[in-house]
Design a protein that fits this description.
The complex is a heterodimer. Chain A is of the alpha+beta class. Helices cover about 65% and strands about 10% of the residues of chain A. In chain A, β8, α22 and β9 form a beta-alpha-beta unit. Chain A is elongated and about 125 Å long. Chain B has helices at about 10-25, 40, 65-70, 85-95, 105-120, 125-135, 145-155, 160-165, 170-185, 195-205, and strands at about 1-5, 30-35, 50-55, 75-80, 100. In chain B, α1 links the parallel β1 and β2 (about 30-35). The chains are: A alpha+beta, B alpha/beta.
């Protein structure tokens, strides 16, 4: 069950219990005050009992649930059977009693509390008990008014229909929200995977790639190499970011600063607790900033200040060194800009580098720690869907009441009206207004200001429907439009504010009462009849008013679940990605780093240095990502690296390449990568593509033992050595 | 004596070409050089045997029009360009250039290309061979599998000996295949006097039979 549906049902139960409690109270107060029952004591006991019970029922229902329902039906049945003592006799029989008000609101409210079968059974039992009670109280007259009382069953059915339609609306809102969520989740997961990949590549670039290039270029390596290689190995193995939990940021940063040859002064409160993910991000930025101080600032001291607000944490690294002009830093390279600013932005934070030549440098890292709000779009989706359903069901209900209840009343009294056509005009106007609303609903457009002429039309129809009923019959059976015209008002004003709806409903009723003057029935009966109909109408208004909070709660809960699901999906897929990436480097890069870390590979040996060059090139190839032509892009990355090392490279491509799978691409570029990394002076790199085959060929003055040992089941390799030149062709033929 | 005119707007390139030509055997006399194609039409350059033409003289794109006018006037043109791509190579060939080479291969192949052009013989440097070997145009001449292999291997390794070793043939056979391919290409597409001369020469040399074209 989706969150909108769940929230709707929860709220529905609460409101149905509350509305019933209030309507029962009003229904019982009127007869207590306005008239005396055959046995006043029984009336008092019944009224007090039914009120106490409905309060208790409302209080316990949500907690103890449905076992109360049989008891509820039994209590109500008993009250219905007590009519002989609790309902004043009328001549002719009035049909509307306080008990039918109580019974009516109960079966209407049941729609939200019981299953369909339970609702039907309860309605039949209550109806039977009511008719039995009526028959006992008035053995002669009860049959006369029974048909009107049977309307109670129709009301229960209408309430059920409204419940089902609104629930359907909530369900389709849930489906729409879920569709939106899927799209958002897919996007978020894709983004997270890209992020993680970039993070991984950036980490590799700063660690393993730098170390390998340094060894390859023959930089004299001290004792630090083994430690660095061990750390690099961690990164290669995918452990480059802490997972979860909270940590003390200050301690974390002190740890970072210890490994940098700088005197660091601190301006920080004790302790600053942040999630580990944030700490890792900030620590990375700080390490980068401090490294830059060492490299470029020309001073031996830096100041780190920390500041934690309610929802942000700010870390600043400042030095009094050389400074630089941030606008004239070469882009394109990993450095201050890319490493700090971009990585912070990716992690949802912000980094600023403030510097001026000669005036030191300040790097400020800001991280926001609270999650953004739930999507407002979901609130709209949910409330629009459910509201639409509610309006359709009120429309249907209005037409059913007009033609199922009111038209028969009109026809059976047709000789009484003065004139009859006025009644027909009233019915026609109410129908017309309903159809106009239907038109707007159909086009899913709001009524807007059109509602006011429509309300005026309903008022006019209502006046016409009242004055054309002869004085003595007003508010009686023949005066069908008295309460039911208000249903059209409910329909038109459903999306207005609740106060407006209730105010205009009250105005409509008061106007009719004022116009009617001498009523056909006793005042108590008028109150009873009004409570029955108005209670139902107001409940519908309450449902409409409650929809927005329901939507807000539902959207918030949907958002929370979405976050959870997204987090889980991200964790799963990122883990899988990391495993795949580790596997890619596990065969060659990892053992070499392990050798450097363990001291078994001597960085002074030419073979080790060449191996480092090849592995550095392999990492460089990873950094080359171009969705359009990854093969060419990877080769160009290798060419660039070789040219930087002073190798003259000729690179040419011919033909059109088909899409090459990732694994095949790595196999095709493998020999080229190794040849370019180990060439002494020149290399010729060529590619010919056709739908039948892709060939990558490299000719270089490189040692064959580094270039040759590439093999792959899908790729044919051919190696030729001519003097100091080795020529390797890798050819892939798509199946 | 073989004479040439160099149309190139880059003084370093011109200096390089002059140096290679002076060292060539037999020597090539560069009659004139200049940044516009006018150099090849008027002055001493108008009578040169071979025109070395830079395809990219300004920002208006490849100078196919200039190439066409030179070819139609019966001039033997060797295109030398920074544009290392298949389409440019095939287009120059179709217009009737005697040879097409990239600036990167000028040092190794330009002199040979000028010598060949002066003798109405084609010269196919690796960049052009790659373009021919990967040509999928439906109107391309029909090449044998071995001809395509020679083109591709020549493109890949830039060493005739390497090609010969790889395909188990003699170096002279490699040259024959390359010339035959060019003769076949000269027989298709746009008509040009240079192409006719090239075909005539190939027939005369016995490298290709008339029924093969």
């Amino acid at each position: 069950m989706g969150s909108a549906e769940r929230e709707l049902l929860r709220t529905g139960i609460r409101y149905s219990l509350g509305v019933r409690m209030v309507v029962v109270l009003v229904s019982t107060l009127a007869p207590l005050i306005l008239e005396s029952a055959p046995v006043p004591a029984a009336m008092v006991v019944a009224a007090a009992g039914v009120n106490a019970w409905s309060a208790w029922y409302a209080y316990r229902f949500a907690r103890r649930g449905r076992w109360l329902v049989p008891a509820d039906v039994a209590v109500l049945g008993a009250v219905c059977l007590s009519q002989v003592w609790t309902v004043p006799a009328r001549e002719p029989p009035a049909g509307v009693t306080w008990i039918i008000g109580v019974a009516g609101i109960t079966v209407i409210a049941y729609a939200w509390q019981l299953s369909l079968a339970g609702h039907a059974a309860a309605t039949v039992i209550v109806m039977a008990a009511y008719l039995t009670g009526a028959a006992i109280a008035d053995p002669h007259g009860w049959l006369e008014v029974a048909p009107v009382q049977l309307w109670l069953v129709i009301e229960a059915a209408l309430s059920r229909a409204l419940y089902l339609l609104v629930r359907h609306g909530a369900r389709s809102a849930d489906a729409a929200v879920a569709r939106g969520e899927r799209a958002r989740r897919d996007a978020a997961v894709a983004e997270a995977r890209r992020d993680d990949e970039r993070e991984y590549l950036a980490a590799l670039h700063d660690t393993a790639s730098a170390t390998l290039l340094m060894v390859a270029s023959g930089v004299p390596c001290g004792h630090w190499l083994a430690e660095q290689a061990a750390r690099d190995l961690e990164v290669v193995n995918g452990r480059y970011r802490t997972a979860s939990g909270d940590v003390d940021l200050v301690a974390h940063l002190r740890e970072v600063a210890r490994s940098i040859p700088l005197t660091v002064r601190w301006d920080a409160p004790d302790p600053v607790i942040v999630p580990a993910v944030e700490a890792a991000t900030l620590a990375h930025g700080v390490r980068e900033a401090l490294t830059n101080v060492v490299r470029h600032a020309g001073v031996g001291e830096a100041v780190i200040s920390l500041c934690r607000n309610e929802d942000t944490v700010t870390v600043e690294v400042a030095d009094q060194g050389a400074g630089f002009d941030p606008l004239h830093v070469k882009g394109h390279r990993y450095g201050v800009t890319r490493s700090i600013v971009e990585r912070m932005a990716r992690a949802g934070g912000r980094a600023e580098v403030i510097s001026r030549p000669g005036h030191g440098t300040r790097v400020r890292l800001v991280r926001t720690l609270i999650a953004p709000d739930a999507g407002g779009a979901d609130v709209e989706t949910i409330s629009t869907n459910v509201f639409q359903a509610l309006r359709w069901s009120v429309l249907a209900m209005n037409l059913i009441i007009l033609y199922g209840l009111d038209l028969p009343r009109l026809l059976s009294s047709k000789e009484n009206y003065r004139p009859l056509w006025a009644q027909l005009v009233t019915l026609g106007t109410l129908t017309g207004v309903s159809l106009v609303v239907a038109g707007y609903l159909w086009r899913r457009r709001p009524l807007g200001v059109v509602r006011w002429p429509l309300v005026a039309a309903v008022f006019a129809a209502s006046i016409l429907g009242t004055v054309s009923v002869p004085g003595g019959l007003r508010l009686g059976f023949a005066h069908w439009s008295e309460g039911d015209a208000a249903w059209t008002i409910v329909l038109v004003l459903l999306d207005s504010r609740f106060a407006v709806l209730v105010g205009l409903l009250a105005a409509q009723y008061l106007m009719i009462f004022a116009l009617s003057g001498a009523a056909a029935i006793a005042l108590a009966d008028v109150v009873n009849a009004t409570v029955i109909v108005l209670g139902y109408q107001v409940s519908v208004g309450i449902v409409a008013a409650a929809l927005r909070p329901v939507a807000v709660t539902a959207a918030a809960s949907a958002h929370q679940q979405e976050m959870l699901r997204t987090a889980r999906a991200v964790a799963d897929l990122v883990h899988r990605d990391r495993a795949a990436r580790c596997a890619e480097l596990a065969g060659t890069t990892a053992p070499l780093l392990a050798g450097l870390a363990g001291g078994t590979a001597d960085p002074g040996e030419p073979a080790v240095r060449r191996a480092c060059a090849v592995e550095a090139a392999r990492l460089r190839r990873l950094f080359a990502t171009d969705p359009d032509d990854p093969l060419s892009h990877e080769l160009r990355a290798c060419v660039e690296l070789a040219e930087r090392n002073g190798i003259a490279v000729q690179f040419a491509e011919r033909g059109v390449k088909p899409d090459v799978p990732d694994a095949v691409r790595r196999a095709l570029t493998g020999p080229a990568l190794a040849a370019l990394a180990t060439a002494a002076s020149t290399a010729r790199l060529t590619v010919i593509g056709s739908p039948e085959a892709v060939t990558v060929s490299v000719v270089a003055d490189a040692p064959v033992e580094f270039v040759a040992p590439f093999s792959s089941p899908e790729v044919d390799m051919s190696t030729r050595v001519d003097g100091d030149r080795v020529w390797i062709k890798a050819t892939w033929r798509p199946a | 004596m073989i004479t040439a005119v160099v149309v190139d707007d880059h003084p370093v390139v011109v200096a390089g070409v002059r140096a290679w030509c002076a060292l060539a055997d037999p020597p090539i006399t560069v009659l004139d050089s200049g940044p516009t194609v006018a150099t090849a039409w008027v002055g001493p350059g108008a009578g040169a045997d071979v025109v070395v033409l830079d395809l990219q003289l300004d920002l208006s794109g490849p100078a196919y029009g200039d190439l066409k006018r030179l070819v139609d006037a019966g001039r033997r043109v060797v295109v030398s360009t920074m544009r290392d791509d298949q389409e440019t190579a095939l287009t120059c060939l179709d217009i009737g250039a005697f040879s097409y080479l990239t600036k990167a291969e000028s040092e190794s192949h330009l002199v040979a290309a000028i010598h060949a052009a002066a003798a109405n013989r084609p010269y196919t440097p690796p960049a052009l061979a790659g373009a021919l070997g990967a040509d999928t145009n439906p109107h391309r001449p029909r090449l044998s599998e071995q001809e395509i292999n020679v083109l591709r291997e020549w493109f890949h390794c830039e060493s005739k000996k390497g090609v010969a070793d790889a395909l188990n043939i003699k170096v002279s056979t490699v040259n024959t295949y390359l010339t035959r391919v060019r003769a076949k290409y000269a027989g298709v597409g746009r008509d040009a006097p240079t192409k006719a001369a090239l075909v005539a020469r190939a027939l005369q040399d016995g490298l290709v039979r008339i029924d093969e074209l």
